[in-house]
Amino acid sequence: MTDSQDDKPNPGEHAARPASIWRLPILLATWFGSGLLPRMPGTWRSLAALPFAWAIHLFFGPDGLMLAAAVVFFIGIWASNIYVRDVGGDDPGAVVIDEVAGQWLTLALAAPLDPLFYALGFVFFRVADIFKPWPVSWADTRIKGGLGIMVDDIIAALYAGAALVGVGYMMGVF
Fold this sequence. Notes:
Distance between the termini: 66 Å
Radius of gyration: 17 Å
Shape: globular
Number of domains: 1
Largest sheet: none
Mean pLDDT: 86
Number of strands: 0
């Protein structure tokens, strides 16, 4: 076997090489390495996304947060594609940029700048992301690559945002 063949996986196998965290797409896909935490990376990253969302929302309003979620979505497709190509897997647990985009979209859709609504948005998004109601489950199993990694969380964010709007109406906030 030549040196160039050592770097390629066998046909039908995924690459299992560790990725360098310092490569920009890997750094972004793992959201600055937080996806490499040993347990519940999606939950930790969604929680850690809240202060960033709060700051963006504070300075740029919900439209700014929506724009930031869209930018992270498209960057996430690119970074996730590279992560999957280089490291392997269909939807690796270490890739958590999708949770960031989903969490930010949830909050941009429906949350006033209020700690209670941010906490509810976090819970609603995690529930939708974990339980994957249809069409989240459909997108999760049918759409592959970076787009598949990202889009199921965006659909989950729509469910979470709708639930947050419902709570806002019940509380008389909207």
